[in-house]
Amino acid sequence: MLYFPHMSSKPQDYEINEKDIDTVLNILKQTDPDNATPQMAIAILEHLQATVHELGHTDPEQLLEIYEGLKKKNQEKKAQKKS
Questions:
Q1: Is residue 45 part of a domain?
Q2: Distance (Å, rounded) from C-alpha 20 to C-alpha 23?
Q3: How far is the CA of 71 from the CAs of 25, 31, 57, in angstroms?
Q4: 68 domain residue, yes or no
Q5: pLDDT at 82
Q6: Is residue 3 part of a domain?
Q7: Domain residues for 28?
Q8: Contact between 30 and 13 (Cβ < 8 Å)
Q9: pLDDT at 9
Q10: Is residue 60's pLDDT more than 60?
């Protein structure tokens, strides 16, 4: 299993929460209103969680690429805010 520097040696326990459900639900309302339900939002979050977990086992290099891309995007946002 691949662990990033900020992670401990144990997998992190993410718990789906209301904020994340609401975020996904808002996206669904815009992109797929017929399926914009809390149940679908939860199903999407569970699927994403399982997919990322499995990716860490099956293709850690791809997971690292995703992480590096997100890190770069975050750095670019910070740089834009400073200017």
A1: yes
A2: 5
A3: 25, 26, 21
A4: yes
A5: 86
A6: no
A7: 18-82
A8: no
A9: 43
A10: yes
Question: Which tens digits make up the pLDDT trace of 1-58?
Answer: 444 544 444 456 789 999 999 999 999 999 999 999 999 999 999 999 999 999 989 9
What was the pLDDT predicted at 76? 93
The upper half-sphere exposure of residue 62, i.e. CA atoms within 13 Å in the direction of its Cβ, equals 9
Asked if residue 11 belongs to a domain, the reply is no
Q: How far apart are CA 15 and CA 49, in angstroms?
A: 10
Tokens of 37: 């339900």
**Contact (CB, 8 A) for 49 and 14:** yes
Count structural domains, the chain.
1
Q: Where are the alpha helices (DSSP H) in 1-83?
A: 18-31, 38-58, 60-82
pLDDT number for residue 12: 63
- Is the model's pLDDT at 59 over the cut of 90? yes
Contact between 4 and 63 under an 8 Å Cβ cutoff? The reply is no
Q: Which residue has the tokens 């850690």?
A: 60
